[in-house]
Design goal:
Elements lengths: L3 E5 L5 E5 L11 H5 L2 E3 L4 E4 L4 E4 H5 L6 H6 L5 H11 L1
Antiparallel strand pairs: 1-2, 3-4, 4-5
């Protein structure tokens, strides 16, 4: 369990994400995490076994779940916290 997922945008930008920070994905088995579907034109990721959905745009901004989830993620850095606060008002 745990680990890292990588996203690569159509423009070539790559970003990695610690799955333990992703709401609904954290704590999932390796096989459930690996079973991810791309929704729409790459707008969202869906993990059917975990019933989890995350927007790629939000992930790229450092938003890994709801405000409550984000507040509970102790491993986050201050820059991500500021982006989250700005995005959620």
């Amino acid at each position: 369990m745990g680990g890292t997922i990588w996203l690569t945008t159509s423009s070539g930008v790559q970003r990695s994400f610690d799955v333990d920070l992703l709401q609904g994905v954290a704590g999932g088995s390796d096989s459930a995490i690996a079973n991810v579907e791309i929704i729409g034109d790459g707008e969202a990721l869906h993990w059917p076994e975990l019933d989890a959905d995350l927007l790629v745009h939000s992930l790229m901004q450092g938003i890994y779940g709801t405000k409550k989830w984000m507040d509970s993620c102790g491993g986050r850095n201050e820059a991500d916290r500021q982006r989250f606060r700005a995005a959620t008002g």
